[in-house]
Design brief:
single chain; about 280 residues; alpha+beta; Porin; twelve-stranded antiparallel β-barrel; about 35% strand
Length: about 280
């Protein structure tokens, strides 16, 4: 695998405005398995890793994910219409794919292992609230069938909070910030910094999902507002109806596609400056 741009954890100075600390080695977060064809043994490093991602846009979801020197590390592909995503390493191996279901302002995204159709390694629950949007991530000790996913009354493994619209937010495990997203001088890019002992591939996948879901939600604010007025629940763990969500996924995708076509016609005047605001 291509080299990551990283610096030793001991060289990372934690300041008031730079609270990234990562995790201790005995509590390392490892979710995405690595392929034998890779030169690496794990996506968990004892260093701070910096990557650059291209912002999701109306034009394209596909892009290479680069380290700070411009070397290709991962590649994402998918669709803004269905919010489906697929991630590959630099050898072309499928690391994970994403299936999602939206219910009013809340979207549940199941992160599936490799090209598996059912084995889920984590669930990301995104709640749209404009500038106060947030996401919660639930991981599992071993991959489980999508039909067995139930996060009801569980505490999230990771909380994502901050200003998602401005690409200024962090990933927090309890009291530790394990990764953070920052604005980049290039207007079409943003920077992801991942702390020591935190799965690089997994955090990158979650970041790309959040970016796509937030843009999708911003294109349909009226629809979300209508649903919220009807009393949509904010509980991240309340997914006990996910079986019905999964069964209705195709019908939901068709509805989303119809709405997205209308949204794109109405919002083609959007530019990068508006999205970065």
């Amino acid at each position: 695998m291509g080299a990551f741009f990283a610096k030793p954890a001991s060289e990372h100075i934690v300041e008031e405005d730079d609270p990234l600390v990562g995790l201790p080695p005995d509590k390392a977060l490892s979710v995405i398995p690595i392929y034998r064809t890779s030169l690496r043994k794990s996506y968990v490093l004892n260093k701070v890793t910096m990557l650059k991602l291209r912002k999701t846009s109306l034009v394209s979801v596909e892009s290479d994910i680069l380290d700070s020197r411009g070397f290709y590390v991962f590649r994402k592909s998918g669709s803004l219409v269905t919010c489906a995503l697929e991630f590959r390493d630099d050898a072309g191996n499928i690391l994970a794919s994403v299936e999602k279901n939206s219910r009013c302002s809340k979207t549940t995204a199941w992160i599936k292992q490799g090209d598996s159709s059912e084995l889920v390694v984590a669930t990301l629950v995104y709640v749209y609230r404009g500038a106060k949007s947030k996401a919660s991530i639930y991981t599992y000790q071993t991959p489980i069938q999508i039909s067995d996913v139930n996060n009801h009354r569980r505490k999230p493994t990771i909380e994502v909070e901050g200003n998602l619209s401005r690409h200024e937010y962090s990933f927090r495990i309890k009291d530790s910030i394990v990764a953070q997203v920052e604005r980049n001088p290039e207007p079409t890019m943003f920077t992801l910094e991942i702390g020591p002992n935190t799965d690089i591939a997994f955090i990158t996948i979650c970041t790309a999902i959040v970016d796509l879901l937030h843009l999708k939600s911003r294109l349909s604010p009226l629809g979300w507002s209508t649903c919220c007025a009807d009393g949509d629940s904010d509980s991240e763990g309340d997914d006990h109806n996910h079986h019905d969500d999964h069964n209705n996924h195709k019908q939901t995708s068709q509805l989303i596609q119809h709405n997205s076509d209308n949204d794109q016609q109405k919002l083609t005047i959007l530019n990068d400056d508006h999205y970065d605001s």
